[in-house]
Every structure is written in structure tokens, then in C-alpha cells.
Design goal:
heterodimer; A: 473 residues; mainly alpha; two-stranded antiparallel ribbon; 19 helices; globular; B: 243 residues; two-stranded antiparallel sheet; 8 helices; 2% strand
Chain lengths: 473, 243
């Protein structure tokens, strides 16, 4: 039997080992990191295949839950862990572009970010979830300020303030639950939720929702996103959108469905999601800097996922999970492409990037990524949006559907404008991309097209959403 | 004006929070025993989790100090996470405070003779005390975190007394890495031996003796060394280059 705990232990072990390796050979650090992430991806695939048969319970320390900690990996958790590890592997190829010192700290922080996000997705214990939330967010603070310029510090400081308030709220929520139920295991809490004082239950839910909302980029807790994404190094931005945001949203789904077992329409989650979509898409429309535009667009996409979770029918939550997959792949691609464009055009202004996409190595993956994020068939972005819409439609929430589509039109408008600029004929000469740039772009594009044309395997996974909604692993 | 608005808003927030938390009972109002539910074996017991820790803690972990039993054994995975959090904090500080060659050096005055002499005398004793705290973590109150903090405070004393003092980065990093590897390594050995990560695979021995509680003392020594070297590293990074 394969142990999911290896997904957490291996990156941690190598994060501790890297300082010793760097004494011996400093040049091997990026290759070791990539190799570790490759190993992790293989283990994640094995864990996922095992979890598809039956949920895995990996007991830590030999104490039966709820006395000890248990990792609880269902099909969806395994699926998300696989997405996160694959994205980390592909982004780590782009990370080799990183030249700024101290490189040792950079690779340690990326490994620990991977460990934290894996832990958040895999754990079945609510306090353990908090610990991994801390690991994820503190690794993110370090990476966000890595450039050591004014923009980086501004973004990191905003993130530190909001992130610490968020994790404090999570801790308050956990303390409230523990004070009443004397347990920290998620399934144990879900089973005995009825014993809780109803008032305490609401306050605890609100605290947890707020706390994980910061990491999941929910309005109005997402003011850190644009500055942090803008100021962070380019590979780190890709990691934020495809790793930490995904683990935050999965933690939110755990709180809503596994712990509190809300199985029907949650109006205020839907409204928060809608507000997030509108805030993100409309502000993205007026942005002139490429990374800021992508950051706001990322907020909009996360809002769609939150909406899908809030509608709460099986179809809508299937859509939300599909959207997590497509957003993780598509946004990582776009941020890597944006990193190259900023490097090639020497500026962040989109108006200065005329004709940069006419190099097919950049242009074709970029076009695939944008069309997927816009929600065009036959790319993976289509299914997520479509299923969220279907979920709302089947329940008759026409007003919400109309607003959702209106926001999508805004999204299409600004991405179309971006496409027009990037593919315009121009006389400017841009430096050719190195293989560390175009290989990850092409890999992401292949995944997007492959699962867009042939989505059956993903739907096979999403069949388990019904069990997840019913309070399973 | 701005300040007045901010103050009023802050007061309002505190009133709302106060009202929200006023209705919530903290702690056990009715002292009836809770029960818990084991999701894997689908069993319900008539015992609460804290009561189980108090009753069975000594037998199941061999640790005399029940707090240590919970922190290192029952919830050892959380402790591994917390150690990682501190490791991250020190790595993050090291990355943010990274000193480039060109940066200018700060001038520092010498401390007076009393501080210099006394810190030399105290240094060894403080380290000894810190080591005692984490070595006896499974027997008496204390453990890896406070012990490591005490050790780091002895280095802080040296930094304050001697302007030119510098802990060597390489040895700090090596100590930190080896301690971390020990913790994860113990966990992985447990995974190999009993297929439980962080399993307490050593014999428990007699409670209340130094060599008891299986792997708990090993983990606490590792945590102590790790916390000590990490906090020293943070102090060192924040002091900057001095002359």
C-alpha cells in the first residue's frame, strides 16, 4: 500500500537536506528540486489511483483517530494532490530561470510550499489543516518578498497582514469546535455536529470560512492578491495561482461539505462568489499591466469556483472541481508566458508587447491558455464553467446565471484585447525564449488540449463528488 | 478626523466581537463525559479524547509529562509542522535579509567590561540549562521549543556583548539540517517498521527515568537543536553585518 504521508515527508526531507547538498554542489540545487517534485508527482499519481478504489486513511503515529492524526485521501483529494504536484513539477522547470541569490533559500521555500499545499489537501484533521495552512502561507510570504524590491515588499506585507488575520480566524473557529466537541478529527466533528450549540456552530463556521477565504482569494479578503502576484518572482506567481490558491479552495470545500455537511444551496457563499467574480473581472478589464490583469482574472476565476461550491448541487460542485483543474493549468501557463513577455519586452505594460506572440513557441501555448481560461471548447476551461452554469440552471437560479454570464463577457473582452495586442504584426525584435520557458508552456498546453478533447477520465473522477457532498472523504 | 473614525470603527468591531463571543461557553459547562467516534473502525466510545490522554497517556507513550505525550506522540505530526513553520520563518528571514557584497557595514560600539565578562561566564550555564530543558522534556515541564529558545538567548547575549561576534552560518545551517533530518528520519523509520509515520518504535522503558518514552527524547533533542540554531540564525540575519 502506498502512503500519502510520503507526499508530505519527501519534500520536507529534501528541504532539510538542501543546505547540506549546497555545501557540496550549488549548481545541482535546481535539478534536485525538480527531481524531488518528479518523485512526488509519481507518488501522487499512485496515491490517486489507490484512492479511486477506496478512500485511504493513513494513520500517523499509530494512534487511532480521533486520538491521533489521520490523513484522509478520497478520490477528489487525490485528484487535487495530483494536479498540485504536476503543476509544481512543470513550474519547477521554469524555476531554473531564477538567477537571483540566495538560491538555496528559494528552492527550500518552494519545496516547503509544496509540502504545505499537499498537507492541506490530504489531511483529515482540522488542527493539522491549520498547521499546514501556516506552512503554506509562511512559505508564500517568504517567496512573495523574494525579489527584495519595493513592489515585492509591499505585496508580501499586505499578504502577511491579511494572511495572519485569516489564520487567527481559523484558529478561533477550531478552538470553538474543540471547546464543544473535544475532538479535532473532521469526520468525528461532522458526525457529532448536532451536539454543538447552534449559535457556536454558526460563529465557528463563519470564522473558518473567513480564514480560508483569504487563501482562496474570496472578496473582500483578496486585496493582497494583485500586489503580491505583481511583486513576486514570475515562477512564484504561477505557483501561487496553481498551488496555494487551490489548496485554500479545497480547504474551504472541506469546511463546507465534510465538516459542516451543508449539502444544499448556500446563499451567502454564492453571493460572496458572485461578488468575487464581479470584482475580479471588472477590475481586470481596466488594468494596463499584464501581471496585474492576470491576478485580477485569477480572482474572478476563484470566484466562479466559490460560486459552484455555494450552489451545492452535484453538477455545480463537479463544475467547481473541473474549474480548479483548468484554472491550475491555464493560469500557471499564462503566468509563465507573462514572465517571458515581461523579460522580453523589458516592461509590464501590455501596450508595449505588440507582436510578442508571433513566435509560435510562445504564441500557440499562450493562445491555448487564454482560450481555455475564457471557457472555449474544446479546452478544459469550457467544462468547468459549463457545469457550474448547468448546476445553477437545473435549480432555477436564473438571475445568478445571468450575472455570471455577464462577468464572463467582461472576461472575454479583456482577453480578446490582449490577444489582439500580442499577435499584432510588429517590427520589434524580441529575444528568443529559452527551453526552460517553452518546455513548461508546451507541457501545460498539451494537458489543456488533451483533457479538453478527451475529458472522460476527469468525469470518471468527478463521479465521486456525490459521495464527497454526502460527507465522505 | 481619520483617527477618530478609525477609533470608532475599532470600538464597534470589538463590541460586535464581544457580543458574538459572549454567548459562547468556553470550556466544559456540564461536566458530563463526552464520547468520540472513530471514523475508521466506525466505533463509538464512552470516553472523551482529553480523558483518554490523561488516563492512558503514560501507558501508550511512556512519557511522564502528559503534555509532551500529546505534543510529540499523539499529535507529533503537528509538531513536525510547527518545527517546519519555524524553519520557514528562519529561511524567509534569511532570504529577505540576504546581504549582498556591496552593502555597507554598520558601526557598533563596544559594550562595557562588566557585560563582556559576565556574558562569558553565563554563556555556558545558559546553554547547559537549555539542554537540560529539552533533554528532560518527557519528564518535567519544558521541551524542545523552550529549550531551543533558551540556547538562542545565550547566543543573543554574545551578540550584544561582542560587536564583532558572528555565529558561523555554515555550522548553524548544518545543525539545523541534521536536526530536521533526524525528525523526519525518525518518522520514516516508523513508516518502515510499523507502516505508521512517526511511530514510537523504541521500547518505552520505565516512566520517570531519563531513558524512557521511546523516540520522544530523540525528537525533543532534535527539536531543541533545531529551534536553537534557527533562532540564532534569525538573530544573526537581523543584526546584519557589523564592524
Amino acid at each position: 500500500m502506498i502512503h500519502p504521508v510520503l507526499l508530505i515527508a519527501i519534500p520536507l526531507f529534501f528541504a532539510f537536506l538542501l543546505p547540506l547538498i549546497s555545501l557540496w554542489s550549488k549548481k545541482s540545487l535546481p535539478y534536485v528540486t525538480t527531481a524531488v517534485m518528479g518523485l512526488n508527482t509519481i507518488i501522487a499519481i499512485l496515491v490517486f489511483l489507490e484512492a479511486m478504489k477506496a478512500p485511504i486513511f493513513d494513520i500517523i503515529g499509530g494512534f487511532q483517530p480521533p486520538l491521533g492524526i489521520v490523513l484522509m485521501v478520497g478520490p477528489l483529494g487525490g485528484f487535487l494532490a495530483m494536479i498540485i504536484n504536476t503543476a509544481a513539477l512543470i513550474i519547477s522547470i521554469y524555476s531554473m530561470e531564477m538567477k537571483k541569490e540566495p538560491l538555496l533559500k528559494y528552492y527550500m521555500l518552494t519545496l516547503l510550499l509544496l509540502m504545505g499545499t499537499n498537507g492541506m489537501v490530504l489531511t483529515g484533521d482540522i488542527f493539522n489543516l491549520f498547521v499546514f495552512l501556516e506552512v503554506t502561507s509562511i512559505a508564500s510570504y517568504g517567496l512573495a518578498s523574494y525579489n527584495k524590491d519595493l513592489k515585492g515588499f509591499e505585496g508580501a506585507l499586505k499578504y502577511v497582514i491579511l494572511g495572519s488575520i485569516g489564520s487567527t480566524f481559523v484558529l478561533i473557529g477550531i478552538a470553538l469546535i474543540y471547546s464543544q466537541l473535544r475532538t479535532l478529527n473532521m469526520l468525528d466533528i461532522a458526525r457529532r455536529l448536532g451536539e454543538m450549540d447552534p449559535y457556536t456552530k454558526i460563529v465557528a463556521f463563519a470564522s473558518l470560512f473567513l480564514g480560508f477565504g483569504v487563501e482562496a482569494e474570496m472578496f473582500p479578503l483578496n486585496t493582497w492578491v494583485p500586489e503580491t502576484y505583481d511583486g513576486a518572482p514570475h515562477p512564484v506567481t504561477a505557483m501561487f495561482s496553481s498551488m496555494s490558491a487551490k489548496s485554500g479552495i479545497f480547504a474551504l470545500a472541506r469546511v463546507i461539505f465534510t465538516i459542516f455537511a451543508f449539502a444544499n444551496y448556500l446563499w451567502f457563499v454564492v453571493i460572496m462568489g458572485l461578488l468575487t467574480v464581479f470584482f475580479g473581472e471588472i477590475v481586470a478589464y481596466v488594468q494596463k499591466d499584464i501581471k496585474r490583469m492576470l491576478a485580477y482574472s485569477s480572482i474572478g476565476q476563484m470566484g466562479m469556483i466559490i460560486m459552484g461550491l455555494g450552489i451545492g448541487t452535484t453538477i455545480a460542485v463537479e463544475g467547481a472541481f473541473f474549474q480548479m483543474f483548468s484554472h491550475a493549468m491555464g493560469k500557471a501557463l499564462l503566468f509563465i508566458a507573462a514572465g517571458y513577455m515581461i523579460y522580453a519586452a523589458q516592461t509590464e505594460k501590455m501596450s508595449e508587447m505588440k507582436g510578442i506572440g508571433r513566435n509560435p513557441l510562445i504564441g500557440i501555448p499562450l493562445l491555448i491558455g487564454i482560450l481555455s481560461i475564457m471557457g472555449m471548447p474544446p479546452f478544459i476551461g469550457f467544462y468547468g464553467k459549463f457545469y457550474i452554469l448547468m448546476g445553477g440552471f437545473s435549480q432555477g437560479y436564473y438571475a445568478i446565471i445571468a450575472l455570471f454570464l455577464a462577468a464572463s463577457i467582461v472576461e472575454i473582452a479583456y482577453y480578446a484585447r490582449f490577444i489582439k495586442i500580442v499577435f499584432q504584426p510588429s517590427t520589434k525584435n524580441y529575444p528568443a525564449p529559452r527551453s526552460t520557458v517553452y518546455v513548461p508552456l508546451i507541457l501545460f498546453a498539451i494537458i489543456i488540449v488533451l483533457f479538453g478533447v478527451y475529458p472522460q477520465p476527469v468525469f470518471e473522477v468527478l463521479k465521486h463528488v456525490a459521495a464527497f457532498l454526502a460527507g465522505g472523504a | 478626523m481619520k483617527r477618530a473614525v478609525a477609533a470608532i470603527l475599532a470600538i464597534l468591531i470589538f463590541i460586535v466581537l464581544g457580543l458574538a463571543f459572549a454567548k459562547i461557553p468556553f470550556g466544559n459547562v456540564n461536566l458530563e463525559d463526552y464520547h468520540y467516534y472513530n471514523p475508521i473502525q466506525d466505533k463509538q466510545t464512552s470516553d472523551s479524547v482529553p480523558a483518554h490522554y490523561l488516563k492512558e497517556g503514560k501507558n501508550e507513550t511512556g512519557s511522564t509529562n502528559i503534555v509532551t505525550a500529546v505534543v510529540v506522540d499523539y499529535r507529533g505530526f503537528d509538531t513536525l509542522g510547527e518545527v517546519t513553520v519555524l524553519f520557514l520563518a528562519s529561511t524567509g528571514v534569511g532570504s529577505v535579509m540576504y546581504i549582498f557584497e556591496k552593502e555597507k557595514r554598520r558601526k557598533v560600539r563596544r559594550a562595557n567590561a562588566v557585560v563582556e565578562t559576565a556574558s562569558k561566564l553565563l554563556f555556558g550555564f545558559i546553554i547547559l540549562f537549555g539542554a537540560y530543558i529539552f533533554v528532560h522534556g518527557h519528564l518535567t515541564p519544558g521541551g524542545g521549543f523552550p529549550g531551543g529558545a533558551v540556547i538562542a538567548s545565550s547566543f543573543l547575549l554574545l551578540y550584544l556583548a561582542y560587536p564583532k561576534f558572528h555565529a558561523e552560518h555554515k555550522s548553524l545551517n548544518v545543525a539545523e539540517s541534521l536536526a530536521g533530518l533526524t525528525f523526519v528520519g525518525v518518522g520514516l523509520i516508523g513508516l518502515l517498521v510499523a507502516s505508521y509515520f512517526l511511530y514510537n518504535f523504541l521500547p518505552f522503558g520505565l516512566p520517570t527515568y531519563l531513558f524512557s518514552a521511546g523516540v520522544i527524547p530523540i525528537i525533543y533533542v532534535a527539536v531543541g537543536v533545531k529551534v536553537g540554531s534557527e533562532l540564532t540564525g534569525i538573530v544573526d540575519a537581523m543584526m546584519g553585518v557589523r564592524e
